[in-house]
Amino acid sequence: MKSFLKHNSQSLGKNNRWIGGKYDWKNERWVWAETGKPISLKTFARNVPDKRFLQWTCIVVAPNRMNKWALKSCLQPNQFICQKKPKRPIRPKTFDIRICRRNVTQLTDSQKIKCLKLVGGYAGKMFPNVPAPIIQTPKPTMKNLKEYMCPSNMLIIKNRCYHFSHDKLNWNDAYWACRDNKTYLATIQNRFQDKMLKEFLNSGLAGKHERWLGGLYDWKQKRWLWANSGIPLKYQGFPFKNYTGSQFEWRSITIDPNIGNMWSSRLRTELKHYICQKRAKTIAKLGDYNTALY
């Protein structure tokens, strides 16, 4: 890749370009985002910073450093390099799979083995009186693996997409700004989701801003609920337990960096940054390897 970028620098330009590496801060290692496998080859242009500062860091190829790797915030806009495997020509099969539809007694041992492999089974067991397509010991099913994708203006955290606004709006306008983009003001359903969001906000990559969430106070029922669904809060991230009463009328929930990104409440007329949210789209799922012959 270095050689290609060097010889084509005039047409490609000298811009940093994303490649698929990122820092897995939980396991303290560099991995390829597509597969999750550790990166064995590391050609960074200089010494890597302390691990404490690598959270939300991804890898670019840097032309100004002889196309070696460099580290940049994953939120920074850069050009990028896509990759796919080349198509290989399909070789003609020498084995006619139609013979697998015959009764097993009509097949040779070699044909039985090939038929078993075609239907995804092991070739170890033979059954004399059943049709060939179902002579198989099923392969074990792999554990399901899911990959998620978000729109380009949103950041993925676990299996949710988040947009951290640059502008300030009152709560009502923020609610509709999210809805206009087919998202909704963020909801936090449990302690784990709250922790994941806090860890990102504590990194400072989205700035240190108090931000609207999607919760508001129902003064008639004297309880907090999520505006998007109308469902009362089951989990609350307020610093104190008794967050109810007439003083919370016309108030909605914020997440406040001044108290460690715990929840707070503000009058809905105040101007704040806000967080939009939607569920990430599942783009891949690996499961049972067994296949049907027909």
UniProtKB/TrEMBL annotation:
Source organism superkingdom: Eukaryota
InterPro entries: C-type_lectin-like, C-type_lectin-like/link_sf, C-type_Lectin_Receptor_IMM, CTDL_fold
Listed SUPFAM superfamilies: C-type lectin-like
GO MF annotation list: carbohydrate binding
Residue span(s) of domain C-type lectin: 1-83, 157-277
Keyword annotations of the record: Disulfide bond, Lectin
Name recorded for this polypeptide: C-type lectin domain-containing protein
